[in-house]
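Batch job 17 of 40 flagged for manual review because the log was empty.
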Amino acid sequence: MTGQTVQPSDRLYIQNKQEQRFIKTENVVKYLPIVGTLLLGVIILVIQIKTSFQRFDEGFAVYYAERILRGDIPYKDFWAVYPPGQFYTLALIFKIFGTSLLVSRIYDTLVRLIIACSLWVIAKKITDEKFATLSFIVSVILLSSSVNYSYAVFPSLALSLLAVLSYIEYVDTARHRWQILSGMLIGLASLFRWDIGLYAGICIIGTILLVNLFKTKYEGNLKLSTLSRAHEFIPLIGGSLIVALPVYGYISFISGIHELWNQVIWFPTAQLSKPRWL
Protein backbone atom coordinates (compact mmCIF):
# COMPACT_ATOMS: atom_id res chain seq x y z
CA MET A 1 0.00 0.00 0.00
CA THR A 2 1.67 3.18 -1.14
CA GLY A 3 1.24 6.55 0.66
CA GLN A 4 -0.03 9.61 -1.12
CA THR A 5 2.54 12.21 -2.12
CA VAL A 6 1.97 15.63 -0.60
CA GLN A 7 2.05 18.29 -3.26
CA PRO A 8 4.08 21.50 -2.65
CA SER A 9 0.90 23.57 -2.79
CA ASP A 10 -0.70 21.39 -0.08
CA ARG A 11 2.43 21.61 2.03
CA LEU A 12 2.38 25.41 1.75
CA TYR A 13 -1.31 25.47 2.69
CA ILE A 14 -0.70 23.35 5.82
CA GLN A 15 2.26 25.55 6.79
CA ASN A 16 0.15 28.73 6.45
CA LYS A 17 -2.61 27.21 8.58
CA GLN A 18 -0.11 26.30 11.29
CA GLU A 19 1.34 29.81 11.26
CA GLN A 20 -2.14 31.33 11.56
CA ARG A 21 -2.97 29.11 14.54
CA PHE A 22 0.33 30.07 16.18
CA ILE A 23 -0.33 33.79 15.65
CA LYS A 24 -3.83 33.46 17.13
CA THR A 25 -2.47 31.61 20.18
CA GLU A 26 0.27 34.21 20.57
CA ASN A 27 -2.31 37.04 20.46
CA VAL A 28 -4.46 35.33 23.11
CA VAL A 29 -1.45 34.89 25.40
CA LYS A 30 -0.41 38.48 24.77
CA TYR A 31 -3.77 39.92 25.86
CA LEU A 32 -4.33 37.62 28.84
CA PRO A 33 -2.44 39.91 31.31
CA ILE A 34 -4.44 42.91 30.08
CA VAL A 35 -7.75 41.10 30.50
CA GLY A 36 -6.68 39.81 33.92
CA THR A 37 -5.69 43.30 35.07
CA LEU A 38 -9.00 44.72 33.88
CA LEU A 39 -10.96 42.02 35.70
CA LEU A 40 -8.96 42.70 38.87
CA GLY A 41 -9.77 46.41 38.55
CA VAL A 42 -13.47 45.70 38.09
CA ILE A 43 -13.51 43.43 41.15
CA ILE A 44 -11.79 46.06 43.31
CA LEU A 45 -14.23 48.76 42.19
CA VAL A 46 -17.32 46.57 42.64
CA ILE A 47 -16.43 45.53 46.20
CA GLN A 48 -17.60 48.90 47.59
CA ILE A 49 -20.81 49.15 45.56
CA LYS A 50 -23.08 48.08 48.45
CA THR A 51 -21.79 50.62 50.98
CA SER A 52 -24.25 52.78 52.92
CA PHE A 53 -26.13 55.61 51.21
CA GLN A 54 -24.44 59.03 51.22
CA ARG A 55 -26.93 61.81 51.88
CA PHE A 56 -25.03 64.72 50.39
CA ASP A 57 -23.30 64.41 47.01
CA GLU A 58 -24.94 61.09 46.12
CA GLY A 59 -28.27 62.03 47.65
CA PHE A 60 -28.45 65.38 45.89
CA ALA A 61 -27.44 63.88 42.53
CA VAL A 62 -30.06 61.10 42.45
CA TYR A 63 -32.76 63.32 43.97
CA TYR A 64 -32.21 66.08 41.41
CA ALA A 65 -32.22 63.50 38.60
CA GLU A 66 -35.57 62.22 39.84
CA ARG A 67 -36.95 65.75 39.95
CA ILE A 68 -35.85 66.32 36.37
CA LEU A 69 -37.78 63.19 35.41
CA ARG A 70 -40.84 64.80 37.01
CA GLY A 71 -40.39 67.86 34.80
CA ASP A 72 -38.58 70.20 37.21
CA ILE A 73 -35.92 72.58 35.91
CA PRO A 74 -32.58 72.87 37.71
CA TYR A 75 -31.64 76.28 39.17
CA LYS A 76 -35.24 77.37 38.76
CA ASP A 77 -37.31 74.74 40.60
CA PHE A 78 -34.52 73.56 42.90
CA TRP A 79 -31.16 74.85 44.14
CA ALA A 80 -28.02 73.14 42.79
CA VAL A 81 -24.36 74.09 43.06
CA TYR A 82 -23.16 71.75 40.29
CA PRO A 83 -23.50 72.11 36.50
CA PRO A 84 -26.37 70.18 34.91
CA GLY A 85 -24.40 67.35 33.29
CA GLN A 86 -24.60 64.82 36.11
CA PHE A 87 -28.29 65.46 36.86
CA TYR A 88 -29.41 65.01 33.26
CA THR A 89 -27.13 62.00 32.71
CA LEU A 90 -28.57 60.24 35.75
CA ALA A 91 -32.08 61.22 34.68
CA LEU A 92 -31.49 59.62 31.28
CA ILE A 93 -30.05 56.47 32.87
CA PHE A 94 -33.01 56.26 35.29
CA LYS A 95 -35.41 56.67 32.39
CA ILE A 96 -33.80 53.76 30.52
CA PHE A 97 -32.98 51.35 33.35
CA GLY A 98 -35.32 52.48 36.10
CA THR A 99 -34.84 54.68 39.16
CA SER A 100 -32.56 52.73 41.46
CA LEU A 101 -29.56 53.48 43.62
CA LEU A 102 -27.86 50.37 42.27
CA VAL A 103 -28.27 51.65 38.71
CA SER A 104 -26.61 54.98 39.56
CA ARG A 105 -23.78 53.17 41.34
CA ILE A 106 -23.12 50.87 38.41
CA TYR A 107 -22.91 53.95 36.18
CA ASP A 108 -20.53 55.58 38.66
CA THR A 109 -18.38 52.42 38.79
CA LEU A 110 -18.10 52.36 34.99
CA VAL A 111 -17.01 56.01 35.06
CA ARG A 112 -14.31 55.21 37.62
CA LEU A 113 -13.14 52.32 35.43
CA ILE A 114 -12.84 54.75 32.51
CA ILE A 115 -10.66 57.01 34.68
CA ALA A 116 -8.34 54.14 35.56
CA CYS A 117 -8.18 52.87 31.96
CA SER A 118 -7.44 56.38 30.66
CA LEU A 119 -4.54 56.71 33.12
CA TRP A 120 -3.35 53.27 32.04
CA VAL A 121 -3.27 54.21 28.35
CA ILE A 122 -1.69 57.63 28.98
CA ALA A 123 1.00 56.07 31.17
CA LYS A 124 1.64 53.39 28.55
CA LYS A 125 2.24 56.08 25.92
CA ILE A 126 4.79 57.98 28.03
CA THR A 127 6.39 55.16 30.09
CA ASP A 128 6.33 51.36 29.75
CA GLU A 129 3.91 48.49 30.35
CA LYS A 130 4.96 47.89 33.98
CA PHE A 131 4.48 51.50 35.10
CA ALA A 132 1.23 51.74 33.13
CA THR A 133 -0.16 48.64 34.86
CA LEU A 134 1.00 49.95 38.23
CA SER A 135 -0.72 53.30 37.59
CA PHE A 136 -3.94 51.45 36.73
CA ILE A 137 -3.89 49.35 39.90
CA VAL A 138 -3.02 52.31 42.15
CA SER A 139 -5.75 54.47 40.59
CA VAL A 140 -8.33 51.68 40.98
CA ILE A 141 -7.44 51.26 44.67
CA LEU A 142 -7.69 55.01 45.28
CA LEU A 143 -10.96 55.32 43.38
CA SER A 144 -12.48 52.37 45.24
CA SER A 145 -11.66 54.02 48.56
CA SER A 146 -14.13 56.83 47.82
CA VAL A 147 -17.74 56.07 48.76
CA ASN A 148 -19.04 59.31 47.21
CA TYR A 149 -21.09 57.71 44.45
CA SER A 150 -22.67 59.86 41.71
CA TYR A 151 -20.06 62.52 42.49
CA ALA A 152 -19.85 64.90 39.51
CA VAL A 153 -16.06 65.07 39.82
CA PHE A 154 -15.66 61.54 38.45
CA PRO A 155 -17.30 61.95 35.00
CA SER A 156 -15.64 65.35 34.62
CA LEU A 157 -12.25 63.83 35.45
CA ALA A 158 -12.86 60.90 33.10
CA LEU A 159 -13.72 63.23 30.21
CA SER A 160 -10.71 65.45 30.99
CA LEU A 161 -8.34 62.47 30.88
CA LEU A 162 -9.88 61.36 27.59
CA ALA A 163 -9.27 64.91 26.32
CA VAL A 164 -5.61 64.63 27.30
CA LEU A 165 -5.40 61.24 25.61
CA SER A 166 -7.00 62.65 22.45
CA TYR A 167 -4.50 65.49 22.35
CA ILE A 168 -1.60 63.04 22.77
CA GLU A 169 -3.05 61.17 19.80
CA TYR A 170 -3.09 64.44 17.83
CA VAL A 171 0.58 65.03 18.67
CA ASP A 172 1.42 61.50 17.49
CA THR A 173 -0.62 61.56 14.27
CA ALA A 174 -1.00 65.30 13.45
CA ARG A 175 -4.63 64.62 12.59
CA HIS A 176 -6.77 67.61 13.56
CA ARG A 177 -9.84 65.52 14.33
CA TRP A 178 -8.11 64.39 17.53
CA GLN A 179 -7.48 68.03 18.42
CA ILE A 180 -11.14 68.92 17.89
CA LEU A 181 -12.25 65.84 19.83
CA SER A 182 -10.01 66.88 22.71
CA GLY A 183 -11.74 70.26 22.82
CA MET A 184 -15.19 68.70 22.67
CA LEU A 185 -14.31 66.39 25.57
CA ILE A 186 -13.19 69.40 27.60
CA GLY A 187 -16.53 71.03 26.81
CA LEU A 188 -18.34 67.90 28.01
CA ALA A 189 -16.23 67.83 31.18
CA SER A 190 -17.28 71.40 31.95
CA LEU A 191 -20.94 70.32 31.91
CA PHE A 192 -20.26 68.12 34.95
CA ARG A 193 -17.74 70.35 36.74
CA TRP A 194 -16.83 73.58 35.02
CA ASP A 195 -13.72 74.01 37.16
CA ILE A 196 -12.22 70.63 36.24
CA GLY A 197 -12.96 71.23 32.55
CA LEU A 198 -11.24 74.61 32.88
CA TYR A 199 -8.21 73.05 34.60
CA ALA A 200 -7.92 70.42 31.85
CA GLY A 201 -8.04 73.11 29.15
CA ILE A 202 -5.43 75.21 30.95
CA CYS A 203 -3.15 72.17 31.32
CA ILE A 204 -3.32 71.29 27.64
CA ILE A 205 -2.89 74.89 26.46
CA GLY A 206 -0.12 75.44 29.00
CA THR A 207 1.70 72.38 27.69
CA ILE A 208 1.40 73.69 24.12
CA LEU A 209 2.81 77.05 25.21
CA LEU A 210 5.75 75.47 27.02
CA VAL A 211 6.59 73.17 24.12
CA ASN A 212 6.46 76.06 21.66
CA LEU A 213 8.40 78.34 24.01
CA PHE A 214 11.33 75.97 24.33
CA LYS A 215 11.22 74.51 20.88
CA THR A 216 14.50 74.98 19.08
CA LYS A 217 14.83 75.71 15.41
CA TYR A 218 18.57 75.18 15.44
CA GLU A 219 20.60 73.36 18.04
CA GLY A 220 21.37 75.68 20.94
CA ASN A 221 19.03 78.45 19.74
CA LEU A 222 15.79 79.18 21.57
CA LYS A 223 12.83 79.79 19.32
CA LEU A 224 9.89 81.76 20.63
CA SER A 225 7.21 80.27 18.41
CA THR A 226 4.15 80.71 20.62
CA LEU A 227 2.46 83.34 18.48
CA SER A 228 3.23 81.51 15.27
CA ARG A 229 1.59 78.35 16.66
CA ALA A 230 -1.42 80.11 18.21
CA HIS A 231 -3.62 78.54 15.53
CA GLU A 232 -3.32 75.26 17.45
CA PHE A 233 -5.60 76.70 20.13
CA ILE A 234 -8.47 77.32 17.70
CA PRO A 235 -9.67 73.69 17.24
CA LEU A 236 -9.26 73.02 20.95
CA ILE A 237 -11.15 76.09 22.15
CA GLY A 238 -13.64 75.86 19.29
CA GLY A 239 -14.45 72.24 20.10
CA SER A 240 -15.03 73.14 23.75
CA LEU A 241 -17.34 76.03 22.91
CA ILE A 242 -19.32 73.97 20.37
CA VAL A 243 -20.32 71.59 23.16
CA ALA A 244 -20.53 73.86 26.21
CA LEU A 245 -22.15 77.03 24.85
CA PRO A 246 -25.40 75.48 23.49
CA VAL A 247 -26.02 73.56 26.73
CA TYR A 248 -25.27 76.44 29.08
CA GLY A 249 -27.16 78.78 26.76
CA TYR A 250 -30.25 76.57 26.88
CA ILE A 251 -30.06 76.17 30.67
CA SER A 252 -29.66 79.94 31.02
CA PHE A 253 -32.73 80.44 28.85
CA ILE A 254 -35.02 78.08 30.79
CA SER A 255 -33.62 78.74 34.28
CA GLY A 256 -32.36 82.31 34.05
CA ILE A 257 -28.74 83.30 33.58
CA HIS A 258 -28.71 85.08 36.97
CA GLU A 259 -29.76 81.92 38.83
CA LEU A 260 -27.29 79.77 36.89
CA TRP A 261 -24.44 82.17 37.65
CA ASN A 262 -25.29 82.51 41.33
CA GLN A 263 -25.73 78.81 42.02
CA VAL A 264 -23.03 77.25 39.84
CA ILE A 265 -20.30 79.93 39.78
CA TRP A 266 -20.63 82.57 42.47
CA PHE A 267 -21.91 80.54 45.44
CA PRO A 268 -19.37 77.64 45.22
CA THR A 269 -16.40 79.95 44.67
CA ALA A 270 -17.28 82.90 46.92
CA GLN A 271 -19.49 81.46 49.66
CA LEU A 272 -19.18 77.68 49.92
CA SER A 273 -15.42 77.85 50.39
CA LYS A 274 -15.80 79.81 53.67
CA PRO A 275 -17.49 77.13 55.81
CA ARG A 276 -15.18 74.47 54.35
CA TRP A 277 -12.27 76.18 56.06
CA LEU A 278 -13.94 75.93 59.50
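Reviewer: the log was empty due to a logging misconfiguration, but the result itself is present. The chain has a mean pLDDT of 85. Unflagging and moving on to job 18.
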